């Protein structure tokens, strides 16, 4: 059954997330308020059991595809020229009820859930959401869900692969990422494999001479069927742009940091701060809907830093 046919259920879940209330309360309000049913265009209100039953029938990938289909219709299309993309990750705390049901480490492993130790918060049970945004429109472009203990340098190539799979990134695009994604290899594969400019903020011990010497032309461009001279020129342009931007990365920190305000909206305004879920599948479905709410929010004009901060409070 296509996800579009379950739109009333999706509307109820979005309603509960938007107002930070339980699904049972959202259903109760819908049953009691005709004006709310008319506004959401829901003629028959399902029970809580029916809502969860319908949600469980779909694969997480179906939710993700459904969400980005809506966002692509709502949000402005990509303009010609290179695009600046911001990438960042945030922890998703799974607010498990340890007293209601015995939950063991073994059961969490079976559900692809893990614990992690973070310097700023200590040990926690959760997952990690990695989001890619268009820096100009703040439109969500792609996201990944990983176990909480997966290091960000390992996530970086995976989110680039996802952007490439969706045909979002193009040669010459600039990728903004904080120093959590820093590694020499991530700079190199950005240029070599994806032909993008990797503005990953460097760490203090970054040896730029060593880094610049690591850039090599990929062997495939010397194939007789390719225009080798043209491709060499393009790689030189990417590397030159990288050197220019990385030399003034401190001046560009504000471009990247706006994604932190977007995460605050998802967590504070749209019920993502503590999820009562602990399977990877369920987390991905709810993250998909949170990404949809964020995309709708920024598309309707709340896309400046002060507005985002005020909305999340």
Automatic annotation (TrEMBL):
It comes from the Archaea. GO terms for molecular function: DNA binding; transposase activity. Residues 81-292 form the Transposase IS4-like domain. One of its GO terms (biological process) is DNA transposition. This is Transposase. Pfam families: DDE_Tnp_1 (PF01609). The lineage of its organism: Archaea, Methanobacteriati, Methanobacteriota, Stenosarchaea group, Methanomicrobia.
């Amino acid at each position: 059954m296509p996800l579009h046919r379950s739109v009333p259920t999706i509307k109820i879940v979005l309603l509960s997330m938007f107002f930070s209330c339980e699904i049972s309360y959202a259903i109760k309000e819908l049953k009691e308020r005709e004006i709310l049913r008319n506004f959401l265009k829901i003629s028959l209100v399902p029970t809580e059991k029916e809502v969860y039953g319908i949600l469980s029938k779909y694969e997480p990938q179906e939710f993700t595809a459904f969400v980005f289909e809506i966002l692509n219709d709502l949000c402005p299309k990509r303009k010609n020229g290179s695009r600046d993309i911001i990438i960042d990750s945030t922890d998703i705390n799974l607010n498990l009820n340890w007293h209601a049901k015995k939950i063991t480490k073994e059961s969490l492993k079976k559900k692809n859930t893990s614990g992690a130790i973070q310097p700023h918060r200590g040990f926690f049970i959760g997952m990690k959401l990695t989001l890619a945004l268009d820096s100009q429109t703040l439109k969500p472009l792609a996201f990944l869900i990983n176990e909480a203990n997966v290091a960000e340098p390992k996530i970086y190539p995976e989110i680039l692969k996802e952007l490439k799979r969706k045909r979002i990134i193009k040669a010459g695009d600039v990728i903004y990422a904080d120093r959590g994604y820093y590694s020499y290899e991530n700079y190199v594969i950005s240029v070599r494999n994806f032909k993008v400019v990797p503005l990953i903020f460097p760490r203090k011990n970054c040896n730029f001479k060593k880094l610049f010497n690591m850039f090599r032309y990929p062997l495939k461009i010397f194939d007789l069927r390719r225009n080798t001279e043209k491709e060499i020129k393009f790689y030189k342009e990417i590397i030159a742009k990288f050197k220019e931007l990385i030399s003034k990365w401190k001046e560009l920190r504000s471009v990247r940091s706006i994604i932190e305000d977007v995460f605050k909206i998802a967590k504070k305004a749209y019920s993502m701060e503590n999820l009562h879920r602990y399977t990877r599948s369920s987390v991905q479905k709810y993250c998909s809907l949170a990404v949809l709410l964020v995309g709708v929010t920024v598309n309707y004009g709340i896309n400046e830093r002060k507005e985002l901060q005020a909305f999340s409070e």
